[in-house]
Design brief:
The protein is α+β, with helices and mostly antiparallel strands. 23% of the residues lie in helices and 36% in strands. It starts with a strand and ends with a helix.
Length: 118
């Protein structure tokens, strides 16, 4: 998937966070691209920025349309937790609705990530 949009969320509890939106297929640079009309798959991820350029960013939660239906992936859950990582969503989760949902709830997901992983 191609990175399509990014939103810097700033610092929360000492760490930097951002949202990244992505689409598939890749948009052509010279054309207008509307994920609602032009994307076969799309999504957004909440990411905790790495402390140094040598470290990897940490995906906390993702929402996308891969696997045939919109869903939320709870990436913050450790492997030994007895909870489903994937939550299936209604079909009406558009690119913008996913973005808005994560913008409204990102601090709650960041807190869950901290609780389970730090």
């Amino acid at each position: 998937m191609e990175r399509f949009d990014s939103i810097d969320l700033g610092t929360y509890r000492g760490d930097n966070y951002f949202l990244v939106g992505y689409v598939e297929p890749d948009p052509h640079r010279d054309e207008e691209y509307d994920p609602a009309a032009d994307a076969e798959n799309y999504g957004w991820s909440l990411v905790q920025k790495a402390e140094t350029p040598l470290d990897e960013n940490d995906e906390i939660v993702g929402m996308d349309t891969r696997h045939g239906q919109p869903h939320l992936d709870k990436e913050y859950l450790p492997p030994d937790i007895d909870e489903q990582k994937k939550v299936w969503l209604d079909d009406d989760y558009s690119f913008r609705r996913m973005r808005d949902y994560l913008l409204q709830n990102w601090q709650d997901f960041a807190d869950l990530h901290i609780y389970y992983n730090e």
